[in-house]
Each structure stands twice: as structure tokens, then as C-alpha cells.
Amino acid sequence: AQKITQTQPGMFVQEKEAVTLDCTYDTSDPSYGLFWYKQPSSGEMIFLIYQGSYDQQNATEGRYSLNFQKARKSANLVISASQLGDSAMYFCAMRALIQGAQKLVFGQGTRLTINP
Amino acid sequence: DTEVTQTPKHLVMGMTNKKSLKCEQHMGHRAMYWYKQKAKKPPELMFVYSYEKLSINESVPSRFSPECPNSSLLNLHLHALQPEDSALYLCASSQVRYTRVHTGELFFGEGSRLTVL
User: Fold this and answer.
1) Rounded distance, CA B66 to CA B59, Å?
2) Which residues in chain B have their CB less than 8 angstroms from residue A100's CB?
3) pLDDT tens digits for A12-56?
4) Which residues in chain B are contacts of A45 at CB distance < 8 A?
């Protein structure tokens, strides 16, 4: 079974600093996908970035990058030049396939607060 | 703006009421999902529809009844709910197949916040 672990319940960062949110995972599947989502107080889950298990390079999307270390089973999210609007809950998730349908297994989340 | 639309945004109901949550997407996705999220917790999967057929039911109590009338619509019918069912209900959609280019990420709506009295 797939498992996602986020060990940081909360993070506090000064505006314009870089921040790393930790995520470790466990799976026996050779092929898997990892996702990061942002959830502001409005409730919507916003997709940020994706890393496939066979991708040779770390994924990047604007200010977001994913530090993928396959041997350590970690997929940390790095946000560069943090902004006040980055304050939100962040979830790491892994895709699991069940009966041909995909399901996302989420970690417990990290609440990020950006201070001015 | 989200491309997955959920209505209503807020719902208050008594334990004997019957109500429905609605979800609509026009991205051509053939997989649709219901997730339940309690405060300060991650979303938990309830149901998955693939090509309008129920693919996954995560042992959800029968007081929750999903329906997928067509590829764009997903409903969640609620009956005889309990106060502990109060939560944010998130609908999502995705492509059924994914590749290196189309990663199959889920697109979520803003959710329906349900309170059961």
C-alpha cells in the first residue's frame, strides 16, 4: 500500500525567503506519480507540480521545484522567493491504481505561513 | 477560476433531510471523484467514477449515494446524515489515462461545506 508522510505540521518563513516542504513516500510499485497541491483557506485544492518515478530530471514550475531523491523516497517541494500569497496548506500526494482507476493518497499536510 | 464547479458552496441540513451536492466540469475528463475533508485533515477519497461507471467505493455508508448522469456531471445524494458527516466535500475530475505529457492530475472544485445539525 502507498503511504505519504509529511513531518512538518507548520512552517513559518519570512517573505522572499526560499522554503522547503518535506515529503517522504513508501510504495512497492516500480511506476508511480507524486503530486503537490496547495489549499488556501477558500478550500480549493490547487495543483502545483508533478514528478513521475521514471523522470530523470527534477520537475520545475515557475517558483516551484521538486527535489526528487528516489533512493531516499523523498519528494520535497521547494518554493523560491516566497510571497504572502503562498500562505496555505500544502499536501503531498501519490497516485495509486485500484481496479484500473486512479486514486490520490495524501499526506497530513504542512501549513505554511509567510511573514511580511 | 476553477474549471470544476460545485454547488451549493454551503449547506446546512438536519439529520432527516434529503439534499444533493452537485459537481460539473467541461474539460472532457472521464474520471470524476468525491473526497471528504474534515478540518485540519487531508482529503479522503469516497468515490471514483470512470467513464460514468462507479470504479471505487471506499466503503462509504449508504447514506451517501453518488450518481454520474453524464460525463460532465457528478452528484452526491445525502440522506439521514449524522453530525459527524459535517465536512468539506470536494469534487475533482481528471483524465482517465495519463502519460509523461498528460500527468493525470486531479482538478478540484472549491468544495461544498456541509453542516449537519
Assistant:
1) 13
2) 50, 55
3) 999 999 999 999 999 988 888 999 999 999 899 999 999 999 888
4) 43, 90, 92, 106, 108
